[in-house]
Amino acid sequence: MAGRYYNTDYLSDITVTCEGQVFMAHRIILSAHSKCFAKMLNGNWKESSEGNVEIKDFDPGVVDAMLRFIYSFEYDNTQGTPPMILDAHMYQIADKYDIAALKTESKKKFELSIANGWATDDFPVAANLVYVSTPSEDRGLRDLVVEIARKNIDQLVSKDGFCELTRETPDFSADLISFLCGKDFEHGKSYPSASN
């Protein structure tokens, strides 16, 4: 129902801007779905007094998808970004703005997209994005990436992008070694070894 109000000036009382793109929004809708927006838009903050939230650390396509989700509980890939990369960005923006439902949905979509696309050149890019954009204690996407890599290690080691990922992303490499050895040492979980 709220979807019809997305990016319209009807009853809009706030704008969200990103790289010069302006999205019309509604304080009550953003606040209802995001604890971060609720604080920003209803307290003594610049965003509340100026009626604008400026987002600088995501591209407009990700911001658009986040806002669409807030209004309709779904997001589409309107920019042609590879799905697993978009889903990783959506998880990242959901975490930053404390949008629990979006974090859950983007994790589900990410799991499907890497299950279907692990053999593409996008997988190492998405895996690196996951590791640089999430704290080590947030295992949501990290465990999915490592499990897919473990299951498909024989094919992945022959790919330059994957080898580069292991060299340039030490946290991923450490997690992968733990999974390959059959243990998640940090969390005390056991996984079947690669030989099983």
Précis, in short:
With 196 residues, this protein is mainly alpha-helical. The chain has eleven helices and five strands.
Describe the structure.
The structure is a single chain. The chain is mainly alpha-helical and 196 residues long. The protein has a domain at 118-196. It is built from eleven helices and five strands; from the N terminus they run ββαααβααααααααββ. It has helices at 27-33, 35-42, 46-50, 60-72, 83-96, 100-117, 122-133, 142-151, 153-156, 160-168, 170-180, and strands at 14-18, 21-25, 52-54, 183-184, 189-190. The strands form two sheets. The protein has a three-stranded mixed β-sheet. A hairpin with a 2-residue loop joins strand 1 and strand 2. Helix 7 packs parallel to helix 10 (160-168). The longest helix is centred in the middle third of the chain and has 18 residues, at 100-117. The protein is elongated and about 55 Å long. The mean pLDDT is 89.
Labels describing this entry:
three-stranded mixed beta sheet; 196 residues; mainly alpha; 11 helices; single chain
Give the total of beta strands.
5
Helix content: 55-70%
Strand order of the largest sheet: 2-1-3
Uncertain stretches: none
* Overall residue-averaged pLDDT value: 89
Layout: helices, strands, pairs:
Elements: E1 14-18, E2 21-25, H1 27-33, H2 35-42, H3 46-50, E3 52-54, H4 60-72, H5 83-96, H6 100-117, H7 122-133, H8 142-151, H9 153-156, H10 160-168, H11 170-180, E4 183-184, E5 189-190
Parallel strand pairs: 1-3
Antiparallel strand pairs: 1-2, 4-5
Helix pairs in contact: 1-2, 4-5, 5-6, 5-7, 7-10, 8-11
